[in-house]
Amino acid sequence: MKKQTFAAPRTPNKKAARLFEHWQLIAVFLILYDLTVVTGSYFLALWLRYDCRFSMIHWEYMLAWLKFAPIYAAVSILVFWRAHLYQSMWRFASYVELERIAISSLILGIFHILGITLLFERMPITYYILGIVIQFLLTLAVRFGYRFILLERGKRAKTMLNAAASRVMLIGAGSAGQMILRDLHETDKISDRVMCIIDDNSNKWGRYIDGVPIVGGRDDILLNAEKYKIEKIFLAIPSSSPTQRRDILDICKETGCELKILPGVYELVKGNITANAMKDVAVEDLLGREPVKVNMDEIYQFISGKTILVTGGGGSIGSELCRQIAKHNPKQLIVFDIYENNAHAIGLELKDKHPDLNLEVLIGSVRDSRRINQVFAKYKPDVVYHAAAHKHVPLMEDSPCESIKNNAIGTYKTAYAAMVNGCKRFVLISTDKAVNPTNIMGASKRLCEMIIQSFDRKIRDGKSADLSPLFTHTEDADGNMLGMTPADFKPVTDFVAVRFGNVLGSNGSVIPRFKEQIAKGGPVTVTHPDIIRYFMTIPEAASLVLQAGTYADGGEIFVLDMGSPVKIDTLARNLIRLSGLKPDVDIKISYTGLRPGEKLFEEKLMSEEGMRTTPNRLIHIGSPIPFETDEFLQQLQQLMCAAYDGQDAKIRDLVGSVVPTYHPAGEHGSEDKGEAYAQQMEQVRQKALVH
């Protein structure tokens, strides 16, 4: 049986069926129109010359016009065709088309003057002038009239839609502001409508840009936001300093409007100034300080060609360290973390951005001596950034033994593995909570600093054999768990610590918590109306850690200058305002009281510590506080045993005996002492900046 086939139905080709395209029909219409115009314009000029009375026109002039009209019409159509006046898309007519019409009219005017004068008759002067002008205006009118009609039609449509558009105040009447305004005035941009412009240049006040009034300076923001019923404010001054932006934003956030800002001056340089380039105002925009700058050449020279290990590499600080290290051409980057999801995520990100990066992502705990030594023995890292730690203060107060095991003992085991495997530099990520700690987490980080200083001191004194591996299993008593004894190596490791405060957006930061509470409608919970903290962005903190690592000589505690402290209550209120809401009106703020181990003030240096400067004015060096190293190492062994035995009741007393500056929250005078230390620290910082 023959297989039956069915042909697909043919779709009529409408384009092929047409004799002429639409633009060709328009061209035919324009040719007919131009034939009428070029001949009629000069007749009209002659008629006007004789006071609009046909009977008064001299017959020789009329005869000359009639004879020359066919010649002139043919030449005119040819000139217009060569000038592409029949092929242009007149809905998009611009200055180029205007220029072509003007030049064509001038050429034809000269031709008409010479042609009719030489061939037939010298005409009146007004005939030549009026003929050229009338022809130019009529030729221009039909073409640009089409564009004008389309624009007016679009304006009417946009006016109808503007009722639903957001009312915008634009701050900045410079180049960036004009680009934003032009972008918003395009036909398809109907979601936002600029109602007024603010600029501090008084010379611009009372004037207009594209029909929008410049109503005043920053002092007029609140008044005009209410007058024009503003819903959004766009800050388009990319060249302004952080302090200037903060001052303007401080006024803007009082309006309750949604705030957006241009990322930076580089947008203007690249020509990327559009409404879509605007970003939401972040909390760091309100800090009002210059962004941290580091010497990238120093970091590149230090990292390039080296094997780098980052413990806690999946965390907020650790992952940012990995991102910045990956940019500086390391020989190999090793991400070590106990939480596989974070480690996997940063591993995928780094592979996508740096496909040629020699990357290893490893899972393990710094508390596991065997595992951490396996990593060091196999990969032989040159530099270690030790970011692995428990950081959540209230949780560590509830589980103090875990804080000691992970932070202090984990640091010792990682440092020991680094020392015996020939690591060149070990950089501990510490915290300002280690200064006069009132909680077990801060005390455990102070223990970490003391461990680093002990390793450095023993190595410098040639007594590294006194540093023995910490163990809890009796079968490891001979040190076999590490595969070597202290006599088998000559230590070359420089041990240093870097101390900084809270990091905006990091794991455990108050910012994500506040945003969640605002999204739910509140209340926003603040522990105390007077609590203050130092803040820095994650990239800033990571870059300063990398730079501090290049300055290391051994035993230093580098202190990052984080500027002035910020009240957490002010931070919460700013976040509410940035969300377009009013604190205590739309979103309630609730004060819950200080949490276990929390204090009002955080300090960056202990009062006993001095401060030396480095080539980077934001990185300082605290002089080590002397302590008896041998006694400390014995006490550390006791702490480890108590922690692994789960002696929560005893561990705080033991920590207090090892860390003299540890004063648990609730002890009499601890907050007064914290405030005094904060004042002393600020005085030391100011002196260092002067020198």
Quickly give the structural class: alpha/beta
- CATH class of the largest domain, named Alpha Beta
CATH homology superfamily name of the largest domain: NAD(P)-binding Rossmann-like Domain
Biggest sheet statistics: 9 strands, mixed
CATH architecture of the largest domain: 3-Layer(aba) Sandwich
Q: Determine the number of helices (DSSP H or I, runs of at least 4 residues).
A: 22
The count of strands amounts to 22
As laid out across the biggest beta sheet, the strand order is 10-9-8-11-12-13-18-22-21
Shape: elongated
Give unreliable regions as ranges.
Answer: 1-12, 265-272, 668-678, 680-691
The helicity comes to 40-55%
Q: Determine the N-to-C terminus distance.
A: 103 Å
The percentage of residues in β strands lies in: 5-15%
CATH topology of the largest domain: Rossmann fold
Rg (CA only): 39 Å
How many domains make up the coordinates?
Answer: 3
Q: Give average pLDDT, whole number.
A: 79
Question: Could you please describe the fold and organization of this structure?
Answer:
This protein is of the alpha/beta class. The chain is built from 22 helices and 22 strands. The strands form 5 sheets. The protein has a 9-stranded mixed β-sheet with strand order 10-9-8-11-12-13-18-22-21, sandwiched between helices. Helix 8 links the parallel strand 5 and strand 6 (258-261). Helix 3 packs antiparallel against helix 4 and helix 15 packs parallel to helix 16. The protein starts with 13 loop residues before the first helix and ends with a helix.
